[in-house]
Design goal:
By secondary structure, the protein is of the alpha+beta class. It is built from 6 helices and 27 strands. Strands 1, 2, 3, 5, 6, 12, 18, 21, 22, 23 and 25 form an 11-stranded mixed sheet that branches. Strands 13, 14, 15, 16, 17, 26 and 27 form a 7-stranded antiparallel sheet that branches.
Length: 427
């Protein structure tokens, strides 16, 4: 069975796409230039002449006027976005930067370790126009650029590590560094429609409320409208490099997404709750399964991981109507991946993730899990996951959360086979 979160696409008007109703409970920023590798275009996507696809075997239903979201496999995307590149946005994930904005509406979230054991998120959106106000934004690391490159996503960050620019140039990774085009605190929000007015050539700003509550490095934000303007301003290619064919009409999909239930998961071992030890400072990335929604709800640092934008929207709705139906503000996903890999220091204060070494891990969905191996030979390759028979794993359609974990932490995560069962070692 395919399940889908309800979300707030435009916050109040479209609260029913990604997020299900709740059932459960610095470094100094360094400036860089925005880099491009091709000219941008706003031409309409080329019409396909492919024959209708067999609904039994493919993701696409010809009777549905919407398009397939290549990141989730759900047929709920604006058809105008077919063939367009996704965006991958670096978001802060340290304790001092909680709660975050906009992350509950991402189509896939990667969590990865940086220096000092801190973790960051890379939030992938198939359609830049559906990115809500999101933050706080943080600086680039090579690991995040390589994750973005694997889906031909436009990489969005705010500052960067000194080794990043050469890496981006070598691999031709399009990106925008918000630190170079930020209004800082000099932005004006229209009180009627919420639009943030910035000067020409500026596409990022600092949240005025956060400026009075947090350190400066935990306050940068942007949204889809401004990021899209930045893509045009820096002449970044909008069309994806992935070319659909009759044999593979959705080549840009992030995993081997399947129309029905994953056979691999159907044959997997029970896994209701899983606590992922990602790093010494984030040892409790907890995913709790809810049978009613079929989703895993995420907590960290001992609390539910919530989306402040959804919280604020809910508060506004309830102020107008105490009986109004509200969206869940906790992160909830269909798929959880735990990918163990080689992570080690680079000889300075930073760490690198050696994706080319591959690794093993687990795929968790629908209250079950399977062991996997995975590969990503170079930055522009996708992550491909395989079952123990060497076949590419079938992945349920929906939002995915991918934990990139140091192989030294193998055996430190735990899981339970039932909702209230004892937690035992994963791996």
């Amino acid at each position: 069975m395919i399940k889908r979160r309800s979300t707030a696409l435009a916050l109040s008007a479209a609260m029913l796409l990604n997020l299900a109703g709740c059932q459960k409970p610095e470094e100094t920023t360094v400036t860089t230039a925005a880099t491009t590798t091709a000219e941008s275009t706003t031409e309409a996507p080329v019409e396909t002449t492919m024959e209708p696809i067999d609904v039994e075997d493919r993701l696409y239903d010809p009777s549905n006027p919407l398009a397939v979201n290549p990141i989730t496999g759900i047929q709920d995307m604006d058809p105008a976005n077919v063939g367009m590149r996704s965006v991958a946005i670096v978001v802060n994930n340290c304790r001092a930067a909680m709660p975050q904005r906009g992350i509950s509406q991402a189509d896939t979230i990667y969590e990865y370790e940086t220096e000092g054991g801190q973790t960051r998120l890379l939030c992938v959106f198939a359609d830049v126009n559906e990115v809500p106000e999101i933050g706080s934004l943080r600086s680039a690391r090579i690991v995040a650029s390589d994750l973005a490159a694997g889906t031909d996503s436009i990489f969005i960050h705010y500052g960067r590590n000194p080794r990043v620019p050469d890496h981006l140039a070598i691999w031709g990774i399009d990106h925008i560094d918000g630190n170079n085009c930020s209004a800082g605190s000099n932005s004006v929000r229209n009180t009627q429609d919420g639009y943030v007015q910035l000067s020409d050539g500026l596409f990022f700003w600092r949240d005025s409320t956060w400026l009075s509550q947090r350190a400066l490095e935990h306050t940068a934000v942007s949204d889809g409208m401004h990021i899209s303007e930045g893509i045009d301003y820096f002449s970044i290619r909008r069309e994806t490099n992935f070319v659909p064919t009759q044999e593979d009409p959705f080549p840009e999909r992030i995993f081997n997404l399947v129309p029905g239930d994953s056979v691999d998961i159907a044959n997997g071992a029970p896994c209701y709750n899983v606590n992922v030890y990602i790093s010494g400072t984030n040892s409790d990335a907890l995913f709790q399964y809810d049978e009613e929604t079929g989703l895993y709800y995420k907590s960290q640092y001992g609390n539910p991981q919530v989306d402040l934008t959804v919280q604020e929207s809910n508060s506004a709705l309830l102020a107008e109507d105490p009986d109004a139906e509200t969206a869940c503000d906790q992160i909830a996903v269909e798929n959880v991946f735990v990918l163990y890999t080689n992570i080690c220091g680079h000889g300075d204060t930073t760490v690198d993730v050696y994706f080319e070494d591959g690794g093993e891990g687990y795929y968790i969905s629908d209250g079950r899990m399977v062991h996997l191996t995975w590969v990503k030979d170079q930055p522009t390759d996708k992550i491909r996951v395989y079952n123990d028979a060497g076949e590419e794993i079938e992945v349920n359609r929906g939002v995915s959360y991918v934990c990139i974990v140091d192989q030294d932490y193998y055996g430190m995560s735990t899981y339970s086979e039932t909702a209230d069962g004892q937690m035992v070692t994963l791996g």
